[in-house]
Amino acid sequence: MQPVLKVRNLKTQFFTYSGVVQAVRGIDFDVYPAEAVGIVGESGCGKSVTGLSIMRLITYPPGKIVQGEINLDGIDILNTPEKEMQKIRGGKISMIFQDPMTSLNPALTIGYQMSEMLRLHTNLKNNEIKERVIELLNLVRIKSPEEVYKQYPHQLSGGMRQRVMIAMAISCEPKIIIADEPTTSVDVTIQAQILYLLHDLKERVNSSIILITHNLAVVAGLCSRILVMYAGLVIEEGSDFQIFENPKHPYTWGLLKSVPRIDQEEKEKLSTIAGLPPDLISPPKGCPFSLRCDYAMRICFEQLPPYFEPEKGHRVICWLLDKRAPAATRSKK
Amino acid sequence: MRRFITQRIISMVITLWIIATLTFFLAKAIPGGPFTKEKALPEAVERNIEARYHLNDPLIKQYLDFMKNLLKGDLGPSFRYEALTVNDIIAKGFPVSALLGAISILIALGLGLPAGIISAYKHNFWQDNFVMFFSILGISIPNFIIATLLMYIFGLKLKVLPVAGWGSFRYMILPAITLAAYPTAYIARLMRSSMLDVLNQDYIKTARAKGLSESKVMTIHALKNALIPVVTYLGPLIAAVFTGSFVIERLFYIPGLGRYYVTSIYDRDYTVILGTTIFYAAFLIFANFIVDIVYAFLDPRITYSSQR
Question: Among the four residues A113, A156, A169, B11, which has the most C-beta atoms within 10 Å?
Fold first, then answer.
């Protein structure tokens, strides 16, 4: 099967007064049709910038995609003229943003904001557009869609607004939906509903999903493949099974350990990874995680490891996988 | 909405009454009177005049008489211009000032809004620097300097426009430009900063992610949200510009209302002081009232009804 999206050696940088921030430092990945891929990492690891780069929504100045290749369904995204790009955005790739409270325009009705997208990317007539919007609102399980159609964003709750955002994202049946932290700013009960909705809709509209999040638990039920990003690099990639059951990178170990467990003692402290991610203006020459890694060896500080492939479809950028490295095992607790 | 309007009208009347009362007593508190001359008048003559204008009545009676006439819409006779009432002065001067003001506001909006939008869109590029350079000039150069420069260039050197007077449209061009300079520059800056703020909002990212063209993002998604600060400024601006400018009307010899605001005070022309002040205050209060109503059209989150 051909991937619907191919990203190769993508590098996105921000030219700021204090220096060039290397937000994404050469990442590769594929997304296959109707597949859900999770991109996981802490704030500032480059996951959102990756999403915006695929949409080519990085604004210059200060941001710029300096190198790489993005191929969507045969279209070379980085060399497409802006006019063509406007047809792709919303039509072939759509995006759901983090904060539903601020992602809808406060001055326009929900109906208008949703119709706008259909008017741009489909040939539907005005009355058909309205029908389709109502149908979409029904699809994301909004009660009384006729009423919501006429309402303004401030009249809806956060969860409802995120549903509207999702309805908008699926409206033109895109090849790929990029969901950038879609559950971060809604409460936990709504989070579960939103995730369930995404899962359900993925089957119906046959789109691929790139789910960007800092929360491994969010990815767990939805994505079949997971990319763990750190300091602008994909440090581990694998199937959901490989990442959750057999992770190889100490950073992934740390991430998994910091997910709160239901059987955890009440007074027990949540596990964290000590330290901060490196400064991306002058990233370390070796492995970016070496400074926080319990298993760091001398070579980790000196040279960036290559990708090792312990299993098919599982790539890890870590010197521990080299034959000469001492055996390190994940401390289970 | 109806309840909001009624409440506002009541508070507007109270505000006006306070302004009228304060102005009345402040004007009377200025030493001297309308008929004080370097050479004292014979006492009998002075007493006669005072009796004619009821200036010898107790202050409180004068105040009550003034209020009674004000309610009837009669602002009284001018002390300085014998044949004119204050109503006449306003009726003659205001249309001239308002016409000039309207042209200036159109210039200010027509130039200031696009300049501000371009400047925000091209933030930190040469277009932005260009607009900001001229807007600093517009804000910092006093209008009498702009006026004299314009007169010198277009009147004396190029000889294309009259330097003073009032009549056909040609006479209005230079004063209108002078009057518009400051508001144009101010609106451009206001629009720029408000637009920059809106362009950083998440919903603009959403609009771009939908595949909208930049022009649609700017006009449909950004403009309506960015206009609110400009509308706020327009209320006082319209009141100030429509009621005339002392300096500009003096320099261009325009028979507007502007000069009376200043001359009436050193003439101690009590009725004209009161009339022009109340007229200006009423205009300002009303303009702000309209601004509040326009808000509701721009931002659906602002409603004036009690039920949601």
Answer: A169
Q: What is the mean pLDDT of residues A145-169?
A: 89
By C-alpha distance, which of B188, B254, B261, B270 is closest to B24? Answer: B270
Query: Is residue B240 within 8 Å of residue B108, measured between CB atoms?
Result: no
Shortest Cα distance, chain A CAs vs residue B204, angstroms: 8
CA–CA dist B87, B110 (Å, integer): 33
Please report whether residue B1 resides in a domain: no
Residue B16 resides in a domain: no
Cβ separation of A55 and B209 shorter than 8 Å?
Answer: yes
Shortest Cα–Cα distance, A147 to chain B (Å)? 14
Residue A94 at interface with chain B, using a CB cutoff of 8 Å? yes
Q: How crowded is residue A301: how many other Cβ atoms within 10 Å of its Cβ?
A: 14
- Looking at residue B243, its amino acid is T
pLDDT one-digit tens code per residue, A201-254: 877 878 889 999 888 888 888 888 999 999 888 999 999 888 888 888 888 888
Is residue B41 in a domain?
no
- Chain A CB contacts of B201 below 8 Å: 102
CATH 3.40.50.300 holds for A5-100+174-321? yes
The reply to whether A88 touches chain B by the CB within 8 Å rule is yes
Reported as a single tens digit per residue, the pLDDT across B54-78 is: 888 888 998 998 899 888 888 888 8
Least CB–CB distance from B203: residue in A89, A98, A102: A102
Contact B248, B180 (CB under 8 A): no
Q: What tokens appear for A86 in the block?
A: 């406007």
Which residues of chain B approach chain A closer than 8 Å at the C-beta? 124, 201-203, 205-213, 220-221, 224-225, 298-301
pLDDT higher than threshold 80 for residue A49: yes
**How many domains does chain B contain in total?**
1
CA distance B264 to B274: 9
Task: Look up the CATH number of the domain holding residue B231.
Answer: 1.10.3720.10
Burial class (CB in 10 A: 0-12, 13-18, 19+), B259: buried
User: Domain limits at B229?
Assistant: 86-196+225-298
Q: What share of chain A is helix, strand, coil (3-state, %, to 5)?
A: 35, 25, 40
Interface membership of A102 toward B (CB under 8 Å) = yes
Rounded Cα gap, residues B225 and A237, in angstroms: 43
What is this model's ipTM?
0.84
Helix ranges (H only) for A214-276 are: 216-220, 240-245, 250-257
Instruction: Tell me, yes or no, whether B15 lies in a domain.
Output: no
Integer CA distances (angstroms), A122 to A73, A90, A125, A167, in order: 19, 11, 9, 15
Q: Quick one: tokens of A253?
A: 């170990």
Chain B contact set for A103 (CB, 8 A): 202-203, 205-206
